[in-house]
């Protein structure tokens, strides 16, 4: 292992923006900087909500060009991570068959009933360990069964594998993202052929599985020319589900922790060695997604800062744009827990008038209704903290995992009010940061594969602790107030 730091680029695509980060990594060294950020704006065409994946790829190329300039024209590697469940279809010539459909599109309405008619929910969970979400890939494929695009498809690539393929010409299916399809058996870490057979899904659409750390090709000559990089530049499969990379980026000391990967979603759970496939876990709607180094992410999706993002978009569309910093400061001055909603309510999933939906939910539970943007913001943050509380408690109970600390990583780690409320709600210390945990996890896996680092996840996290500066929040005891708020909306622990 060389003592000289090496340079890696992390392509990290989120639901609202993409970024390319540049890292210098070596023993005792982990420096990360953002070189390019670009918006991720879905587009509705013909009544269907799509990802503008070519614009995303343009942003990736621009970012790699900036990374190369910052690194003197050479990179030691590239890794790609993104959100889960969505995919692109390629024809026999490798051409993209239309822009990928967004998971928030309504095309999967009714798909779950079709799947459960041939695979009862209990069997499906026992086979795949995946929580029920209305947009799981298996439901998307069932909804797309009679479409011309699926009929013409020769290949299906999950979003990070699609970007990696365009960069290298090599096709693969990285396992952490594949585990969100509801077609993977988390015990064998391989395809569930029985689930595929019963749902009529052709597994030959998927290229071979690969794991974090596996080689994923080298940048094509045309990509080198486009970005100005000097080859060869290897591309490495990382935890291509951004949450898998983010959990690598949790600076935990030991194993007694829960994590909350915050952003558009809050992914709340624990890191385990074996999946939890019990009926209690299914009823609690926990998922078992595969992680790096044979780990399992036993977690539940909570709606996340999407609630606030969509409120802000709605206000801007009405001609009343809001400044986030001003909103958070005003929300911090308001009385706590006056109004809360169930952040797991599927009514909050689609885009649209989020303030109206929050007001309707408050009215339905006979609570006061928020009136001002600051009140809506306080409602969202109190509600998210309450959901974090309930989910951490259930994760502990279902897995038997000891939890002494809650690590908050991702964009929400910058939100001091949310972090403090989460500590208060959970009654546990919160360690917030790093905000760019997904990019850090991405480059740590690359660096280890390239020989710039060595060791286990614990060793990688030790490097994080020695190079990053998290913020610590101590819980303020007021359990009764949180119990009362949970009871108002029917949440138990």
TrEMBL record:
Keywords: ATP-binding, Disulfide bond, Kinase, Nucleotide-binding, Rhamnose metabolism, Transferase. The keyword Iron does not apply. Residues 258-450 form the Carbohydrate kinase FGGY C-terminal domain. It holds the Pfam family FGGY_C. CDD domains: ASKHA_NBD_FGGY_RhaB-like. Residues 10-249 form the Carbohydrate kinase FGGY N-terminal domain. It comes from the Bacteria. Belongs to the FGGY kinase family. This is Rhamnulokinase. It comes from Streptomyces zhihengii. The lineage of its organism: Bacteria, Bacillati, Actinomycetota, Actinomycetes, Kitasatosporales.
């Amino acid at each position: 292992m060389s003592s000289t730091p090496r340079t890696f680029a992390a392509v990290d695509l989120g639901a609202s923006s993409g970024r390319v980060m540049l890292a210098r990594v070596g023993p005792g060294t982990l420096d990360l900087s953002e070189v390019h950020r670009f918006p991720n704006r879905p587009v509705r065409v013909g009544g269907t909500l799509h990802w503008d994946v070519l614009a995303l790829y343009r942003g990736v190329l621009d970012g790699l060009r900036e990374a190369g300039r910052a690194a003197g024209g050479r990179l030691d590697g590239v890794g790609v991570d993104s959100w889960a469940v969505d995919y692109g279809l390629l024809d026999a010539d490798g051409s993209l068959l239309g822009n990928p459909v967004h998971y928030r599109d309504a095309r999967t309405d009714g798909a779950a009933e079709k799947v459960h008619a041939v695979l009862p929910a209990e069997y499906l969970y026992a086979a795949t360990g995946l929580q029920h979400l209305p947009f799981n890939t298996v439901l998307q494929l069932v909804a797309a069964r009679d479409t011309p695009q699926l009929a013409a498809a020769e290949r299906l690539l999950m979003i990070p594998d699609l970007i990696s393929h365009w960069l290298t010409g090599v096709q693969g299916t990285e396992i952490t993202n594949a585990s969100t399809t509801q077609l993977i058996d988390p015990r064998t870490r391989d395809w569930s052929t029985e689930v595929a057979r019963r749902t009529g899904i052709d597994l030959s659409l998927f290229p071979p599985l690969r794991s974090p750390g596996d080689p994923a090709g080298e940048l094509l000559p045309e990509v080198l020319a486009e970005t100005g990089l000097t080859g060869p530049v290897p591309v490495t499969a990382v935890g291509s589900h951004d949450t898998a990379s983010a959990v690598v980026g949790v600076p935990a000391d030991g194993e007694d922790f829960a994590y909350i990967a915050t952003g558009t979603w809050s992914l709340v759970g624990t890191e385990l060695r074996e999946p939890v496939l019990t009926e209690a876990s299914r009823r609690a709607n926990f998922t078992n997604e595969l992680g790096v180094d044979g780990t399992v992410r036993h977690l539940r999706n909570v709606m996340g800062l999407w609630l606030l993002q969509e409120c802000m978009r709605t206000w801007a569309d009405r001609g009343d744009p809001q400044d986030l910093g001003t909103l958070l400061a005003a929300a911090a001055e308001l009385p706590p827990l006056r109004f809360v909603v169930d952040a797991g309510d599927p009514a909050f999933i689609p885009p649209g008038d989020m303030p109206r939906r929050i007001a309707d939910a408050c009215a339905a539970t006979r609570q006061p209704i928020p009136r001002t943007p600051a009140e809506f913001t306080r409602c969202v943050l109190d509600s998210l903290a309450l959901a974090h509380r309930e989910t951490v408690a259930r994760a502990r109970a279902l897995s038997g995992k000891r939890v002494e600390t809650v690590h908050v990583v991702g964009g929400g780690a910058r939100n001091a009010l949310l972090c403090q409320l989460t500590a208060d709600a959970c009654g546990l210390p919160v360690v917030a940061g790093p905000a760019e945990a997904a990019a850090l996890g991405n480059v740590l896996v690359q660096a280890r594969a390239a020989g710039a680092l060595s060791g286990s996840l614990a060793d990688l996290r030790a490097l994080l602790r020695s190079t990053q500066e998290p913020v610590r929040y101590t819980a303020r005891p007021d359990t009764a107030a949180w119990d009362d708020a949970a009871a108002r909306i029917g949440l138990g622990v």
